């Protein structure tokens, strides 16, 4: 009687606000409920009572759908400990625990030792949740006990899969042993708390199937789970709880998921007209879903006849097994071992649209972004891959994988980017990483010039140039308008993000500075994809510098030759203007030929090769390229050397273009470097391909002699190298 009055009071006071109902109208659950009696939720959705599953004779306490004619049990209390007759009796004792007995034998009971019971009541809610709570309690968080915390094999809307960290409660879903036997089998679905948690389907200790971690939008391995007409997925992660749950889009739809004995998850929707459960979706659903199909570092691709592929840069560990017997368990190994030696020996290659690897060996840092993540990963030899931990919006957070990468798969359109560590020498055609995820901003040089023009050239500046110079040498050269339109059509220049460059160069740190260009320092950097770059900065607000910057972008973007330094793109943001080139590990020619130690190692054939290379490059800009270009500042510090000591002409800041038939120009502003300038240019300002050839001659002499033209002071009247050679 006591309990009944408590329940009535409870119902009157709290039901309206909680929107829950107590089945006080169906039976007299006072001190006990016997086999044959049931408790029905207020709205009539669910019923609690004793049942026998399938052909079994045993009795179990459970909850099922009241209105569904096919007996569908959603929760079982004593699955592991059935009652062999109809003598079961359920009581709520005054410490707030449910106790199930067969005669005097204890069959099952609830544990709520950690919460204080005061006039406890028991209620079956319309969500299917059986709860014990204190009479005056209104907060679902303070329930003494609830069946949703001890799930069986079925996930109902509002149930949680995952952890209550405060009580160490792991809500996992365990398959029945068989349709006749609800005792928990060894197949279960659980959220595993790695640093980057994810849901697994397990059979004992063996992983059957993996959802992939929650990436802010969906489970990495099940993008389509979030994308349906039935429910919304919610992933909750805070200091108290980590779990996922789902809510229905239409509350009158009845749906469940069942974990079956072979580790399949089936979702059904009740079809009221057909009076049947209609299958909605099930997982795993294709050949790539079963766990670790392709071994370590393998990638599963459903569209290939051989589902297992090695990622670019990897090859099958046992090619024989891999190709001839489709035995993929050995997985893939790197083509080139990692050097893992300092930060500049490895790089990262971006792979798109993946299910990210198993997160067992991961570290997560939500406070840093992708760029810092790359640096962090690069600095730890066992860090093999990284990406954003949350892909919402621009992406945020950092997750790093250590050791081998397991259970990846390829998606076609959705899926995540993953940056995988590779040896620096591993060739790759992957596009450079840019902060702009979807479409790397590539714009034709004409629009770059337009941007540059808009950003940096005030009308005043343009006017001044037009007034001061002859048209041929002036704005037409700076802003490609008419004369070179045809050449620009197919041209693409990549625009780099300032942040990308800042991260690549360690925020332009002094350690990364490799030289002083004509208009600002030059830095070495490493892009996200591992490419080494040289960043030529332009000092802020130098008018002259701006013009030359634009000039160089315009010219070099159109030039491609193995003896010209390779231009990668530019960066124009805020006050910053930079040119990005491939990095030349052997520095500039002057640091080689004029250096006592290094020049000793330079053999004659190498010197000859360098001279020939420069000549080829010069030939190209003078004759063979689409534009005729006079470099005007050829000197050893503008010749860079790659790892094979192959020379590359750089620094087109003061170069001039001509139409195909023109070959000479005049300028009032003589630029270049004394010592390398042809006399007629230095004196009259008239320049042509011949002035470059003059400079080339000096250069050749310097390479052969290892002496600076200006630096050779003899006591006799020949004051420089040229005079010396003449003499
Ligand atoms: C049912 O179980 C009880 C206790 O476990 C046992 O004493 C009894 O003999 C069993 N009855 C039958 C019919 O198996
Ligand atoms: C209530 O049930 C729990 C669980 O079986 C038990 O530990 C506790 O002693 C019971 N309390 C009373 C007063 O029977
Ligand atoms: C009660 O708690 C103990 C230990 O915490 C646990 O082993 C047992 O399974 C629990 N019983 C139920 C019915 O939840
Ligand atoms: C969601 O479904 C729509 C329609 O089927 C599809 O176009 C879209 O790509 C899907 N998105 C994801 C993330 O699966
Ligand atoms: C919700 O589902 C019911 C039953 O399927 C249907 O009759 C009703 O139109 C649906 N409501 C909405 C808003 O879709
Ligand atoms: C579990 O579901 C899968 C997929 O529908 C089915 O092939 C398998 O037979 C089921 N397992 C059992 C034991 O019913
Ligand atoms: C690391 O670099 C040093 C010097 O650059 C070299 O001697 C050593 O062999 C390298 N180690 C590995 C594992 O590549
Ligand atoms: C690299 O990371 C792993 C995993 O966090 C850690 O155990 C190891 O100490 C790190 N190594 C270095 C050199 O920082």
TrEMBL record:
Catalysis: reaction(s): L-seryl-[protein] + ATP = O-phospho-L-seryl-[protein] + ADP + H(+); L-threonyl-[protein] + ATP = O-phospho-L-threonyl-[protein] + ADP + H(+)
Membrane topology listed for this record: Single-pass type I membrane protein
Matching PROSITE patterns: BULB_LECTIN, EGF_3, PAN, PROTEIN_KINASE_DOM, PROTEIN_KINASE_ST
One GO CC term, this protein: plasma membrane
InterPro entries in alphabetical order: Bulb-type_lectin_dom, Bulb-type_lectin_dom_sf, EGF, Kinase-like_dom_sf, Pan_app, Prot_kinase_dom, S_locus_glycoprot_dom, Ser-Thr/Tyr_kinase_cat_dom
Signal peptide start and end residues: 1-23
Ranges for domain EGF-like: 284-320
Protein EC: 2.7.11.1
Record's protein name: Receptor-like serine/threonine-protein kinase
